[in-house]
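Figure 3 (text version): structure tokens given as input.
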């Protein structure tokens, strides 16, 4: 059984992380788009480790924005300052995010293990938005309801079913930058 002091220490640590998140979210309002026009869409990811790691990669690769769908507060420390540098947009579900990006001229691509179109050899438009879903649950929406969202896969040769979502997001960002380096 956990003693009272341990419970209090854990509660205090969560409160500190929440205050950090709120402070960085306010600073995020001043964030400027990166060097490239691609956007990363995080669809109902667990708010823990992967979200800040994707922000870190988005900053490194010069993302224009990161859209978060159904994601609550997260520990910003693993982002190494990137959460206050890359503009974040928050949505409750996929449909409004989709509509906004389509109206802005973006082509959307969902990363999915086993998708018919492999990332290598795909020509990515300048205005690309990459949707990554929950590692266990996948995408929160039925892809048939959004036929304009392409599906890309990253070739894998091992026995593990899929890559870690932050690694997969980093790979697609790298491929975009490789194709559109400025």
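Below: residues designed for each position.
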């Amino acid at each position: 059984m956990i003693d009272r002091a341990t419970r209090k220490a854990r509660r205090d640590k969560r409160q500190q992380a929440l205050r950090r998140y709120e402070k960085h979210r306010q600073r995020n309002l001043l964030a400027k788009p990166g060097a490239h026009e691609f956007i990363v869409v995080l669809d109902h990811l667990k708010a823990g480790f992967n979200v800040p790691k994707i922000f870190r990669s988005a900053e490194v690769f010069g993302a224009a924005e990161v859209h978060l769908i159904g994601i609550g507060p997260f520990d910003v420390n693993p982002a190494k300052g990137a959460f206050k540098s890359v503009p974040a947009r928050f949505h409750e579900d996929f449909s409004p995010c989709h509509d906004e990006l389509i109206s802005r001229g973006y082509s959307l691509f969902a990363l999915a293990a086993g998708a018919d179109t492999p990332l290598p050899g795909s020509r990515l438009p300048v205005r690309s938005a990459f949707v990554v879903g929950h590692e266990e649950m996948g995408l929160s929406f039925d892809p048939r309801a959004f036929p304009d969202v392409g599906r890309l896969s990253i070739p894998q040769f091992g026995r593990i079913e899929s890559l870690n979502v932050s690694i997969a997001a980093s790979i697609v960002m790298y491929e975009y930058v490789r194709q559109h380096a400025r």
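The chain has one domain: 4-180.
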